[in-house]
Amino acid sequence: MIRIGDKDDSFYILTSGDVDVIVGAGDAETVLATISEGSVFGEIAFFDRQPRSATIRAKTQGAAVRVTRETFDNLAAWEPNIARQMLYDLGRILAMRLRWRASASTSSRAHRSPLFTARTGSRESS
Q1: Quick check: 95 and 126 in contact, CB under 8 A?
Q2: b (16+ CB within 10 A) / e for 54-83
Q3: What CATH code is carried by the domain that includes residue 20?
């Protein structure tokens, strides 16, 4: 779905299935986490417009909705409250993932963290 290094500033909402977040390639490939239905991926490139920082590969059959920057800008113009809530949700999910990643580097955690299954619009805290 996404390859590390790709240039694309859209994000995705996973509407069904599971995807793996992967860094490295070949024998050096590492699965960092699994993201489940209802959560998002690609949010880092959406915010910083830099090349993709990880590969996203389908783990199970599923579907995702791609939200381009243009689509988001149109949403913000027509429904600013919804767009603002989406930004808060994306920021919250990104912050939780960064915190989880930092703590996971000092402990042995399973790949499937509750933080990677966080759904947009939920009120989970970190």
Answers
A1: yes
A2: bbbeeeeeeebeebeeeebeeeeeeeeeeb
A3: 2.60.120.10
Report how far residue 13's alpha carbon sits from residue 10's, in angstroms, rounded to the nearest whole number: 10
Of 14, 33, 30, 13, the residue nearest 75 (C-alpha): 13
Number of CB atoms found within 10 A of residue 124's CB: 12
Q: Report the number of distinct structural domains present in the chain.
A: 1
Give residue 35's identity as a one-letter amino acid code: I
Domain that holds residue 75: 11-111
- Sequential pLDDT tens for the chain (126 residues): 899 999 999 999 999 999 999 998 888 899 988 999 999 999 999 999 999 999 999 999 999 999 999 999 999 999 999 999 999 999 999 898 888 777 766 655 544 454 455 555 544 433
Instruction: Note whether residue 38 is domain-resident.
Output: yes
